[in-house]
Structures are given as C-alpha cells and as structure tokens.
Amino acid sequence: MISFIASLPSTTAALDAERTRLEVIAQNIANANTTHGLNGRPYHRQQVGFEAVLQRAQAEDGRGQSLAVPRAGRPQEDLRPGRAIYQPGHPDADENGMVELPNVNIYEEMADMIVASRTYEANVAVFKNSRSLAMQALSIGKG
Amino acid sequence: MINALFNQPGYLGAKRMLDATMVRHDAIATNIANAETPHYQRVDLAPSFRAELQSAIAGRDTNRLNSLRPQIAKDARALPVNRDGNTVNLERELVELSQNTLEGTIQSRIVTASLAKLRMAITGKS
C-alpha cells in the first residue's frame, strides 16, 4: 500500500488512544459514588497510560528516523485508598458505621478530561492539515 | 534531452522545498500524536537540510539539488515541558503545523507556475 501521508497512522492512533482515555474518565466520573463495585468493594479509579510503538515500515524509508505511534495501555487500577465517612445506616457500612467511598477525585478527572479532549482536537486539526496538503499535492500542474 | 526541461535550479529548489514540507508535516503530526506519551522526544527536519538546500540553490547546483533528501531527526535542543520528560509543546507544534501547511501551499503554487511556464513555451498558449 502506498503511504500517501506517512504520519496518518500516528494521528489515527492518537485519536484512538485519547478516545480510550476519555471513556475511562467518563467511567470514573459515572462511578464517583459507587460504594459497591463488581467485586463487592468500592469502585476504584482506573487510569490509562500511553506508550509509543515505533512504526516499522518507516525505518527503510530513508527518512532517518522512524515515526512513533502512540497507544493507550490497559487501564490500571489506582490503588490510593478512598475517603471513609461515618454513615451507620448505609447498606455498605462496616461494623463501626464507616462507609468507604470510591477514590475518584472529580476535579482531577475534569482536568484530565480537558487535557484529553484538547489533545484530541489538536489531532483532528493535524488530520485536516494533512488532507489539505494532500489535496494541494494532487492539484500541482492544474490551472 | 527532455530531462533538461525539468533541471532548472528554481524548479528543482521549489520541488525539494515541497518535499521537505511534506516530511516536516509528518514530523509535526507525529509530535502532536505523541503529545501525551511519556519520555517522547520531539522530532523535526534535520537542521543541516536547510543550510544544504540554501547553498545548493545559491550555487545553482542541479546535481546536488537532485540528490538532496530531507531527513527526520530527533530535536536535541527541545527541553522537557513537564515531569515525564516529554519535549512536545502542543501550542508551538500547532503553530508550526499551520505555518508548514501555508509554506506547502506557496511551494506547490511555485511548482505549478514553473510547469505552466513550460506549457506556455510548448503550446504558445497561456
């Protein structure tokens, strides 16, 4: 296959990775008050790390440097303990009447969400620029 | 030879500049894609390319213009912008991206204009 724009796989991968991150953030915010998660424990915040994979075909391209493609890693559980409140009537309260809340900090999630959506937008801008460069290249010699 | 028609230094220089713009676009796009990747080092056009192209155009050296190939290299001067060692500054990259696309527009117009001149010489029509 001809790679018309060599950086397109990187841009696509970045959009994909940012979307994954946004989905995990959405899940964290949605479960900010879940005291009884799937394993019976309070919900724990999930986080996604990014890693770079080098694009293999690029190395032989004579361009000197292969292009890095980002990838979202598997969501990892944040192990910080959650806040505990005293609420004896709660169905998940322990013998002392304490309920452990999820360790989701809504401000942290909102800040992460803004970073993720800005990066997503930046990659959309890159895609539009790639497209316009390619269209210009196609119209060389016309007119 | 027909090749001589396409061997004028101005036309070749514009062509090489357009090549460099496309390669630079790939470099900037990769930087923006990896803006959130820990330890990522930003890449750019190798700094020697600009000087080599300038001297080749100034010397009207068509052989060197034909053999010049833009290369991508790690930008050693870039400083980390946050604690994870990533050297991509998103705002700066976006500005460079728009600037690079504009440069590409200008260069493709120059190439088109050179070809139009040739066509005019061949057909006598503009």
Q: Quick one: biggest sheet of chain B?
A: 2 strands, antiparallel
Largest interface: A-B, 41 and 40 residues
Structural class of chain A: alpha+beta
- Shape assignment of chain B: elongated
Task: Please report the number of helical segments of chain A.
Answer: 2
Strand order of the largest sheet of chain B: 1-2
Structural class call of chain B reads: mainly alpha
How many beta-strand runs of chain B? 2
Low-confidence stretches of chain A: none
* Run of helices and strands of chain A: HEEEEEEH
The whole-number mean of residue pLDDT values of chain A reads 86
User: Approximately how much beta-strand content do the residues of chain B carry?
Assistant: under 5%
- Radius of gyration of chain A equals 22 Å
Gyration radius from CA atoms of chain B, angstroms? 18 Å
Oligomer: heterodimer
Q: Major sheet of chain A: size, sense and barrel closure?
A: 2 strands, antiparallel
